Amino acid sequence: MAEILLEVKDLKKYFKAGSKIQLFKKPFYEKYYLHAVDHISFSIEKGTTLGLVGESGCGKTTVGRTILRLYEADGGEVLYEGKDIAHIPISSDKTYTKKIQMVFQDPYASLDPRCTIADIIGEGIEVHGLYKTKKEREERVCELLEMVGLNREHRNRFPHEFSGGQRQRVGIARALSVNPEFIVCDEAISALDVSIQAQIINLLMRLQKEMGLTYLFIAHDLSMVRHISDQTAVMYLGTIVEIGPTEEVYQNPSHPYTRGLLASVPLPDPDYEAKRTVRGMKGEINSPINPKPGCRFADRCEFACDICREKMPELKDLGKGHKVACHFTEKLNSKE
Amino acid sequence: MSILEVKDLRVSFHTYAGKVQAVRGVSFSVDKGKTLAIVGESGCGKSVTVQTIMKLTPTPPAFIEEGSILYEGTDIVGYSEKQMQKLRGKEFSMIFQDPMTSLNPTMRVGRQINENILKHMTLSSKEATKRTMEMMRLVGIANPEINMLRYPHTYSGGMRQRIMIAMGMAANPKILFADEPTTALDVTTQSQILDLINDLKKQFQMAVVLITHNLGVVARMADSVAVMYAGKVVETGTAREVFYEPKHPYTWGLLNSIPDTANMNGNRELPAIPGTPPDLFAPPKGCAFAARCPYAMKACIKAQPEETCLSDTHKVSCHLLDPRAPKVEPYHVKRQKTE
Q: Is B217 close to A264, i.e. CB distance below 8 A?
């Protein structure tokens, strides 16, 4: 087994969502918390990709941001090569900000419109003092631009002169500028057209092969995640409901939510679509503010029983590293 | 008989930087009770085409340079704003991409649906309110008595899109234009909204013009498909023809760039279309796709390809279909394993 690069243990992130004074009820003063990430654990091996999927509002972006410490974790650990990085002071130790980088979702909003491409990409290089002379920095910027498939002449242009796909390439070059080991791709392709998406996916996969990068690939496009990921984790309302090797999760989805999610994806085959009987699921994602005890998916689940509403299921191993959090996994699988 | 027919429509935008030829000769027709899907990348003119039919593009800067739009046999290109207002909402209606911004945040949703009913139907305000509630039930919103008094921001994305559909459907339109109705939604909600549109289509025998760039959505919804590239329809046909016997290299590229989940063999590279679409300020003289096409020939750069009819419905504009063109490896059809 390969070396584990990043391990997340029992990670928790709650956001304050106001409070309410109720005169005739107890507790008298109730605080509301949005449970964005609720006790999540997973690990990523070096040089592999973990795909994180789920509906909007399920907390997948928060996971990525908490790992980068754009949000401070409220509990749990983020172990990078065995060392907890969730609680070290950032200002004194820049090692990990260099090793972990991020590619953002919206290529239109994540590049400063007043900076040239060279400044955007060179900023990280300067912060970490990787190069001494100006010329060296310029060389590095050109090298990065060529690495992501842009021309070196592009370096003095401004972001508005580029198309969405090109901007996303700039975003990737910026992430690569400090020689990171781990990149969080937060919906890096969602804002792009189909044909451009494929280009960016190919670029990311090529870079992974060449530089041995490790990705956390956050997306809601299930087919793209299947293409790029070695491991896939499915999130629902702040918890991981299913995690395992990608093919295992897609071919034997064992959580009712994963099944519903996969059944909702329309596939580009008219005959198949016409014959398809199981389609999607009912209802909408519940509010993550002060969630009820028990399985988070219970309200939308067709198999839900009393136990689901009382006790939160734990992740159970089905073999081959495929884990599911459901009280009725065995029962559901034996039905078929 | 087709309810809507667009013939050789050309639309350009006159800007300070020059003339943008957004739509450069688009023709298609939609039959009653059928769905036409218009597919293409962003900036290929699919939204402009539909907005021009609805006359929602302001003139200036947008001008219809040429072509005709026949609605039930009458040309509506020359219609005045007053005449269009009678059509809009009653005969045609539109669902927009972003349900977050296309509803009025200062009006209760019930009144927004009501507006359309009062404008186009001769009903008293009591009857109109009744109809509003009926429409809300139809699109799957329970307790309309309470829910019609809520403001849009209190609804989730999927529910707002349902309200948009209720607004669009309120006056029983004959054609529903849906401009990327599910792009901003999650897959699970998308599936619900697509089902709703399909049910309503069957129930009211409407024609639906669906704009999307998701080929999965096209496969699920469409009876016929028009693939657009740089302001032109490059391939049109029934859904089966376009998905199983595509003839244009751009269609091949689009179909190939979706990961083939049924036949995965390791982490192989996705066949992406290289490059980006051309600048429509100065569209190329020849085929607009030539610069990105792996099969481009000299003829492609010199002259625009003529439309070739392969069957009554299947039409393709590509030089490869010329008998003198070299034979290329045909597209390998991807089929999903049946459940």
A: no
